[in-house]
Structure formats: C-alpha cells, structure tokens
Design a protein that fits this description.
homodimer; alpha/beta; 434 Repressor (Amino-terminal Domain); Rossmann fold; 3 domains; six-stranded parallel sheet; 14 helices; elongated; DNA-binding
DNA sequence: CAATGTTGCTAAATCGTTTTAGCTTAACCT
DNA sequence: AGGTTAAGCTAAAACGATTTAGCAACATTG
C-alpha cells in the first residue's frame, strides 16, 4: 500500500467502493447506528477496521452542510489579552471542547455593545453551534434572538437580568462583603471602593456588597467610579485626585484587577505606604499582586471551577438540547496577604473595652 | 414584509426563485464575476439590492464543501493563558482576520511535541486553511507534511531550522547581546544567564547572544538552565541554589518572563537587594516588571509588529498562493528601568584610566 | 401454502454552494 | 442568405456526508 506524498482524501464513497458495499451502510456504521439499522456484526467490524486502516476522517464541511451543525463554539470575551481571567477560561475550555469534538473560535468585544452586536450578526446564520459570552450591556435583543433560534448560550462573568439564560458567575456580593468585613475587622474606618462606571451585574453586586458592609458597620462610604475605556494615565490621575480629595481614607477596595494596577500606581505616586497609610484589596488575582511588595490581598475567582461549569453547561445544552436554564453562582476566595493587615491591635483593644 | 420570529435562512436558490433567474446568475453576481460572465448591469444591481434587502448570508458549510476552503485559521500556541505574548498576538490577529472574512480557532500545545502532533493530526484533512504555530521541538515532519499539501503556515516566536517555512521571530541574538552589553557597561562583572533547558532557536539565540557578549568582554559566564515543565516551586529552588552556589554573581539575565518571575521570587527569598546586590534584566515585558519595586529592565518584544507581520504573511499566502518563503526578523527593544542601573561610576572611572 | 415478519442491506434525495459547458437570441460581416 | 461573434443567461454536475424509504431473501406463522 504505497502512501502517496500528497495524501488524497479518502471519502465514505471510496470506502464503499473498496469494500463493495453502499455508502449508506458505511455511514450507518460510522455513526454508531449499526445495530439500530441491523448491519451484521461481521460487516460492521470489517468496515471499522478498514476505516482505521485508511485513517478516514469525515469531511466536516459535508457533515456540517447536511446536519446543520458546525461543531464550533464561539467564545466571545471582552479582550482575550487584557483580562487574565478570560485567557485562563479560554485555556481550560479548549481541552474539554476538543475532547468532545468541538472547536473554539474566539472574538473580543472590548466590552462595547456595538462591537458585540456586530460580531453576533456576523456569526449568526454561520452555523456556530453555541456561544459563550461575557456580555456588554445592551445586547439583550441579540442574545434573545439567538435564544429564540434555540442556539445554546452560556453567559459568563456577568448576567443579563432581563434575560432568562444560562450563566456562570461568582458571588460578587458576598465576596466583596467579606473583603470589606475583613478590612473593618482589621480596624480600618474609612474604606473606599474604586470601581467601574458600569451597571453590569458583576459591578452592581460588588458595589452592593461594599455598601451593605459599610452601612452595617455604620461607616462612611467613599465610592469612586472610573471608565473602562479611558486611558491608563487618565484613570490613574482620577484615582490620585480622589485619594487626595479624601485624605481620611485608610483602605481601598479595587473592584477589578486592572483598576487595582492603576490604584497601586496612584498610591506609589502619592508616596503612601501600604498598608500603613492605606490598606489595599483588589478583585481578581494577578502575578503582580502576588509578588508586589507588600503582597496584595485579593478576592480570587475560582477560574477552574468557572471553566468547568461553563463548558459542561455548553456541552450539555449542545448534546441534549435540554431547555432547562442553569444559573450557577460560585463562591470567590479572599486571599489575605500583607496589604490589608494592620491595626489588628486596635481592633483587639476595642474588643476588650 | 413580516419578519418571522425564527428567521428561516434564505438561500441562493430562494433568491433565484424570487427574482425569476437561475442560481448560477446569482452566484456569479455574488462572487463579483458579473462583468466577467457578462451579466447585465441592470440585473446585477437588482440582485445585489435584493440580497441586501433579505440580508442573505451564504452558507459557509456549502461554500466550504464546494471550494474546499473553510475560511478558518488555526492559531496553535504554547498556552494562551500563560504567556502574555500569545494572548496579545491572538488579540491583534483576530481583528484583521475577521476583516478578511477569516475566523480563528486556537489550541494550546503546552510546548509538548506529542500534543502538537496530535493536534495537527486532528486538524488536518479538516479543512483548516492555514496554521499559525509556535512550534515545539520535533514536529518538523508534521509541518513538512502540511507544507507538502500546500497549506499556508507561519511559524512564530521561534523557527524550525531544518524546515523552509515562513516565520516571524525577533532578533534574539542581538537583543540579548545588547542587554548583556548594557549590564557590562554598567559595571557588572559576574553576569549570569538563567534560561530554559531547550534547543529551540529562540533560546539558542539568546544563549549565543549572552555568550558572545560575555566572551568579548573577557568575563566569566554563568549559565543555569531550568525546565519548562517543572513546578514553579521546583524552579524557584533551583534558582535559589544556583545563586547561592555562585555568590559572586552580581547580575542576572532571565531569558523569559516566567523565568523572570521565578527569579524575582528567588532573589526575594535570598534577601538580595536589586540592583545593589544583584542587577536584573528579563526577557519579555510584564505588568509585574513595570510596577515592581524596583522596576525591572526588560527586553520587550514588539508585539504589534509581530502580529501585523504574522497575519499579513498568512493572508497573503492564503489569497495569492504565493510560494515565496518569508523569514521576518524583528528587533526587540531594551527598556531600561531601575533594576539594571548601578556602578555607572565605576564604568566611567575605568573608562578614564 | 399464502401471509406476515425479520434480517441485512441499498438507491436516491438532500443540504447550499460553485463552476463547466452550453443554449438562445440578436447583431454583424461578406 | 449564410456564417460568425457576442451578449446574456442557465442546466446540471459536482463537493461528501446523512437519512428516508424500501427491496430482496429468508424465516415464521396459522
């Protein structure tokens, strides 16, 4: 059997011809319908062996054309290069998807409504089997339209409350609440939140968690919102001004890791010592936070868990066409490092009074 | 014109029927062959307007089946979540590819030969139009086999010298040489290289650049190799031992950013001050290096340039079937920060002698 | 022995394009 | 008038799978 240099693709038709049987039979056997279609075991075995031998791989285009399924999942994130969370999720999803015979294409929305809508328009009717999306605000209609067509969707990182759609998010409210509680119990009194100017659920919940903890403790709240689309420098100066204007602040919670990075630069610029002058906690872990001096306390997302749930939801929806909607809320973990530890003595002192 | 809830897909056949013309004509017009095939301008215009009106999108599966082209490019990297370079390249490539009507699927090799081979086996004969690959060692055969089939390939980050294949890399030799020269001219005498235990071109060139600079200056070389697949902790202790065993070392060059991160931890563990006890330069920039105290000097890769060249090479190869092989070597940039600045006085002193 | 079932397989339609080969007209030339 | 050319379009064959409908041969039943 001479292996030609340029391997001519072998088709189901070639197999039929070679074995002297019809392509129907071959197709049935390949699709595991041998018993159902009453193909004899002998023939089944013969075909399967031959298929192995010639290393037959079905043409996905032909399969796709016939079945209407592309075996492609679209992963639509804010920016695969910006937020480590998305890259890590992408990595973990990839393997499982490949195991099930799915391939993943990706695209980035920059968290812009227009871009997301454009991308969805581009992809729909292009036989994408399912979508994993971190949705910007305002794309409810397009998502609903996909849902109406029965296309599986899993939202991730944030939810669209107007919609009834699978999603995997973390418990932003409680994890932020816990982080603020941690600061309070370490004796900090004037705790600021620096967050995104956004009404998306994940940000709204972090804000709510902050407000609840501050209110319950009878403390004053300090909230500063910055804009995702502004330049790094702009936002750093915004934070600098905010901290200068509110110089009683003795602790600050950054609601995303990139805001955390901006915040650290602002704090460095102001020559404030962490945690002596100002304590710090950031949402989302990052190498920088681990190895910064001092190391930075963070609320870490359970990335492997998130990924596992996302891909499982997607694959289940794809295979079983199960219309049940799953809303998965995972706990996040407060990783306490040096940047938030101080005034414990004061706390104990007060406690003893 | 009532828009139905579930948009029934409109096909080229529907268009022909609706307009009372043949699907051939529609196809010619849609593919811009109207003039060539002598379709009248009036009809061309009518068809194009109707196509707009009903928002017709050709079925990619059918197109793919007929033409043998999938309009899909595979991006095969080491680990999209690990090395920022890859995620950034992915991001930049994405947009340009979409503009040209291509979609990108990705997969990660973990820099393992077996995994890469398996993935290539999986994808080939699956009508992937082109491959952008950061190749592990030892996959020359599979790449050659793709090349033999005339499939466009662009290698990135490193080359496979045994093959004659498009690639986009940076000038590892000269950029490393320049970084070591910088250390030398800042008066450092015992400069170590900590690099990967790998014969891949990018690592070999970095090593060669180091050796050349050290030899030309008549200095002693200190080289430590660590293993990509070992755990973080293992490699950190390796580095710690190496620095302890060679305590005359006063500067160190890390040949990748993750080795740099390990190195910083080792240095922190040894309580060495940067740059007073030991100067530091790392390959590849990273938030951590920018904002570390002190900030870390790096050899930064020109990520946008790399991406631009990669996608242009790929698209050119896809569209024109141009068999010319392009080898693109881009300069990297030494970004001097605090971690490598010291002993300038000594240098000046010597210079004056 | 006729009717009915069962076993084991296959012919042919279909999915939505692209593309080759050609078919009508009408115009032009000599 | 007969022959050639050109303009403007189309029929039908792929591409490679899946799937519906059904055929032939044999076995079973009453």
């Amino acid at each position: 059997m001479p292996a030609s240099k340029v391997s001519k693709k072998v088709s189901i038709r070639d197999i039929g011809k070679e074995l002297g049987i019809s392509i129907t039979t071959v197709s049935f056997i390949l699709n595991g319908k041998a018993k159902e279609k009453r193909i004899s075991e002998a023939l089944t075995k013969k075909v399967l062996e031959f298929v192995k031998e010639v290393n037959f791989k079905p043409n996905m285009m032909a399969q796709g054309l016939r079945t209407g399924k592309s075996k492609i999942i679209c992963l639509m994130v804010e920016d695969i290069s910006n937020n480590l969370l998305f890259a890590q999720v992408a990595r973990l999803i990839e393997e499982e998807a490949h195991n099930k015979g799915y391939r993943i294409i990706y695209c980035s929305t920059d968290n812009k409504k227009e871009k997301a809508i454009e991308l969805i328009q581009l992809f729909r009717d292009r036989s994408i089997d399912g979508y994993i999306i971190t949705p910007p605000e305002g794309i409810e209609q397009e998502i609903q339209s996909l849902l109406n067509d029965g296309i599986p969707i899993v939202l991730i990182d944030r939810n669209l409350p107007l919609l009834s759609c699978n999603h995997v998010v973390i418990d932003n409210f409680n994890s932020t609440h816990e982080a603020i509680r941690h600061l309070i119990s370490n004796g900090f009194k004037n705790i600021a939140l620096i967050t995104l100017n956004s009404d998306q659920t994940q940000m709204a919940d972090r804000l709510a968690g902050y407000v609840k903890a501050i209110d319950d403790a009878g403390l004053q709240s300090y909230v500063k919102k910055v804009d995702f689309h502004e330049s790094d420098d702009h936002n750093i100066s915004e934070i600098i001004s905010f901290l200068q204007d509110n110089n009683t602040i003795d602790a600050v919670f950054f609601s995303t890791n990139y805001i955390g990075v901006w915040g650290l630069q602002a704090i460095k610029h102001l020559n404030l010592r962490i945690p002596d002058d100002i304590a710090v906690i950031s949402f989302d872990d990052h190498d920088l936070f681990k190895f910064y001096t001092p190391s930075i306390t963070v609320v870490a997302q359970p990335v492997p868990d998130i990924s596992r749930h996302v891909i499982r939801l997607m694959l289940d929806a794809l295979e079983e066409a199960d219309p049940t909607i799953h809303e998965i809320i995972l706990p996040a973990k407060l990783i306490i490092r040096e940047s938030s530890m101080r005034k414990v003595v004061v706390e104990k002192h007060e406690f003893l009074k």
